[in-house]
């Protein structure tokens, strides 16, 4: 059956668009995906969840977004105070990042201020325990504690940028204007998932307390000489690269970004300026360097025959059309010969 004879009535064409590709931008465009958030609840000002801070580590490719939480509805205030205090102490101790974005680095030893002598170290631990007892006081004046940063009142979402790689798909953003589709290449994709920095802060502070307690008990033996046995381990390339990457992530500082809500004038202005081709009349037309058959061969998986025999390549549309035309001509020749034979028999009978 020829391609023209195929019935496409069950899948009709409903619209056609002229496709344009926007020029390369000086700015970088990243697509932030929120797989744990429904599309009917976007993070914006209309839904009272406008991000309060966006930060990025451009070299190692980490992005984090802080979104506010309603601490007066469906919220455990006791846990909010405990986790908020842990985050505050960690930040006061100089910790600005947690988890993979921080290279899995532990909390600095100065998270609990050091003092001279073992007795002073024990006092530090007691102070930490006394602050745990102050949770009830913070709960009694919860609103004031929330305003002063003692309550975990924001959620952190984060991820790592997935950039273009050779042989991988190239992603683009599409915007419509009338019968035009404008495509803009994106610099990378980030899947933003909840980060549990507050739990990291609790764990690291507990480790700091145990370290201080151990130093208080074993402080007299800290300067005693000890036998050390050196061993050398051969590390493979992947392990060395992972360690080097974690070190760079730990050393790199956060770069804070300015956030504009999607319904602000600045957002609309940038959208219309960057996401469309303005002079569509004089835009150069795209020309493919491949034929249809070459494109199909390029995207098709290579076929292998277990017997080792080579398989024939699939026929092209032109080859199939020639075969159909030749079959039609053969049928016509057979009918012509049959008509001649019938005519000769009639003449002999006459």
TrEMBL record:
Compositional bias of kind Basic residues: 309-320
Biased composition (Acidic residues): 325-336
Residue ranges of the region described as Disordered: 300-350
Any matching Pfam family: RPC5
One cellular component term from this protein's GO annotations in UniProt: RNA polymerase III complex
InterPro entries named among the record's database cross-references: RNA_pol_III_Rpc5 (IPR006886)
Keyword Transcription: yes
GO biological process assignments: tRNA transcription by RNA polymerase III
Keyword set, alphabetical order: DNA-directed RNA polymerase, Transcription
PANTHER family: DNA-DIRECTED RNA POLYMERASE III SUBUNIT RPC5 (PTHR12069:SF0), DNA-DIRECTED RNA POLYMERASES III 80 KDA POLYPEPTIDE RNA POLYMERASE III SUBUNIT 5 (PTHR12069)
Protein name stated in the entry: Putative dna-directed rna polymerase iii complex subunit rpc37 protein
Organism: Botryosphaeria parva (strain UCR-NP2)
């Amino acid at each position: 059956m020829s391609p023209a004879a195929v019935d496409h009535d069950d899948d009709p064409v409903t619209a056609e668009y002229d496709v344009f590709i926007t020029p390369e931008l000086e700015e970088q465009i990243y697509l932030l995906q929120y797989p744990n958030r429904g599309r009917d609840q976007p993070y914006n000002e209309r839904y009272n969840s406008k991000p309060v801070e966006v930060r990025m580590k451009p070299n190692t490719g980490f992005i984090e977004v802080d979104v506010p939480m309603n601490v007066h509805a469906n919220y455990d205030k006791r846990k909010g105070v405990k986790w908020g205090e842990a985050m505050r102490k960690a930040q006061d101790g100089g910790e600005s990042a947690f988890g993979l974005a921080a290279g899995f680095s532990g909390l600095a030893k100065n998270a609990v201020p050091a003092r001279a002598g073992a007795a002073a170290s024990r006092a530090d631990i007691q102070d930490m325990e006394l602050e745990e007892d102050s949770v009830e006081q913070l709960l009694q004046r919860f609103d004031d504690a929330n305003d002063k940063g003692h309550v975990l009142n924001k959620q952190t979402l984060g991820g790592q940028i997935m950039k273009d790689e050779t042989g991988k798909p190239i992603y683009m953003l599409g915007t419509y204007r009338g019968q035009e589709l404008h495509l803009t290449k994106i610099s990378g994709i980030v899947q933003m998932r909840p980060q549990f920095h507050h739990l990291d802060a609790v764990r690291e502070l507990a480790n700091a307390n145990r370290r201080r307690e151990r130093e208080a008990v074993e402080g007299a033996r800290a300067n005693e000489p000890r036998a050390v046995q050196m061993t050398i381990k051969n590390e493979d390339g992947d392990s060395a690269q992972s360690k080097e990457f974690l070190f760079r992530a730990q050393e790199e500082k956060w770069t804070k970004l300015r956030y504009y809500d999607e319904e602000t004038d600045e957002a609309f202005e940038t959208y219309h300026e960057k996401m469309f081709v303005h002079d569509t009349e004089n835009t150069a037309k795209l020309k493919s360097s491949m034929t249809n058959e070459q494109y199909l061969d390029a995207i098709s998986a290579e076929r292998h025959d277990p017997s080792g025999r080579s398989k024939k390549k699939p026929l092209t549309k032109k080859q199939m059309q020639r075969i159909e035309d030749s079959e039609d001509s053969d049928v016509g020749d057979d009918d012509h010969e049959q008509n001649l034979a019938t005519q000769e028999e009639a003449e002999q009978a006459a």
